[in-house]
Amino acid sequence: MSIAEGDYVWAKLTGHPYWPSKVLGASITNPDDSLERHVQFLGGKKPVGDAKVEPVIPETFDKRIRAGKKAKGQTFMKSVAELKQHLPHNFLKSSAINSKSAARIESMEPHVPRRKPTAFSVPVPVPALTKPHPGSCIAPSSEMNCARTSPVIISPASKAASSVVASKKSVGFASDSNVQSSSAAIPANRSVPRILSLEATGSTATESRDRAAKSDALTTESRKRRANGATDIPVDSRKRRANGTSDAPAAKKSKTAPADSTSEAAFATPRDPATKPRQKYGFLGLGIMGSEMAANLLKHNHDVVVWNRSGVKNDDLLAHGAMVADTPADVISRSEITFACVSTPEAAKEIVMRKDGVLQAIQAGKSYVDMSTVDADTAKMICNMIHSKGAKYLEAPVSGSKRPAQEGQLVILAAGDQDLYNLAAPAFHAMGKTHFYLGDVGNAARMKLVVNMIMGSMTSALCEGMALAKEAGLSQKTLYEILLQGALNSKMVQAKGSAILNEEFPPHFPLKHQQKDMRLALALGDELQQPLPVAASANETFKRAKQQGYGDHDMGSVYLAHSRDLRGV
């Protein structure tokens, strides 16, 4: 059975059950694979991605439902409820489908995403007053989630003022003097009773006036208590405030608070390209990492202008619509935000300062994000040059190697202009799974060096252990399996251990770049007088492997400097 764009299918990702999905088109990563499509997964956030697909047919329907419900529970069943709306007529009545299961699915309501509550409720249509109180307008309380127990009466002159009160982000008392109501305070999570028309509530005009009189009496009584030094605030609230606490609900934390430790998690799966705003980006540097990062920007429906020092040779980028520029300055002039990812601090400075470089075209209104791994001094130097032209700057080195770059699963460490950090969020979502804002320029460079120093030290230790096991007559494969079953299991151990067993080291992260990062981390330690004996020892091993000609191999090839057979000992 052929599967076309717009069909509803079962889609399968590794480690997950088959999921109800809609086909958006051919696979982006594997367009020639007849079993793979670019799909939108139904239910909830509706993420998109490439996945293996199969048609929804009665013969496998029960099996897919049982497996999905067992693995994902109600989350899965909500997506099935949405799928039900698109099944052929009488599909669930097929003899191949369990009748009880079909009946349950038939009765399910389609999933309707819940909206998160805000400080003020979304306005709800309210019947118009058939007998309005003369000279006043009764505001629907559904538009204002203020801490009130009685209707809010607004004079015609202050009708506009009510919208100002309703737009405030903090929950509390309406402060406008034109708003007349009871002063009696209640917990902030209590909403104002909704006022309907007299006919809708069944109230008479007399009953309405009686309620208004009682409200006025309460207001008068409240003013008398305050004149005598009393307060309307409940005793418990007064005690809490005296202790420095608040009755108001805790404010929601900002996702991009300018603190060293804050982070903003990216979407684990990309947003729907049909709803994401299209951005125009530039990208300088198309090496092992840069080419994959630029490809992910293109896959997420952004326009990308690219440039590479040795020329653009990546046919996949061109096939996905990348526009090639002749110089870095040309990229800057054609882009709102330009990203750069090159191999060394020297290269990072060169593309900025060269005759046809970044500084020749950068100006106010333009932005530059350097994703290269450099030292803090280099990051600050580039920042000063960019700022001297009136443009914005952000350093944003990444943690991850070739595969995470391909899969858009990098960890992005950013520092510098926070407005630019927010503007670059759509690109960060496309290239990474998480991004962190670390404050001032230089912090991201230091953090990246610390991360890579730890990674290099761990890789060296793993290689030493594998070499020792071999010399001791132990099975390296058994050691590898033991590591995977214990606390040391990690993606790094999985990848580098497998490479050592096969003695194959294709460059996911070249050894020469890892050694450069170890060198820069040790220089930072010297600057701060922080001893780094483990990292210093590991660096010597990386230097030895580099001298032996393994610099362009993956960093896991440092094992070859540990192995007695391969050292020629």
Derived from helix and strand composition plus strand pairing, the structural class reads alpha/beta
Give the fraction of residues assigned to helices. 40-55%
What distance separates the N and C termini?
A: 61 Å
Number of helices: 22
Overall shape: globular
Percent in strands: 5-15%
What is the count of β-strands?
A: 17
* Low-pLDDT runs: 115-205, 231-242, 244-275
Oligomer: single chain
Tell me about this structure.
- The protein is an alpha/beta fold and 569 residues long.
- 42% of the residues lie in helices and 13% in strands.
- The protein has 22 helices and 17 strands.
- Helix 16 (443-471) packs across helix 19 (511-528), helix 16 (443-471) packs across helix 20 (533-550) and helix 19 (511-528) runs antiparallel to helix 20 (533-550).
- The two termini are 61 Å apart.
- The relative contact order is 0.06.
- Mean pLDDT is 75; it is low at 115-205, 231-242 and 244-275.
Summarize the structure.
With 569 residues, this protein is α/β, with parallel strands linked by helices.
Features:
ten-stranded mixed beta sheet; 22 helices; alpha/beta; single chain; globular; 569 residues; four-stranded antiparallel barrel; 13% strand
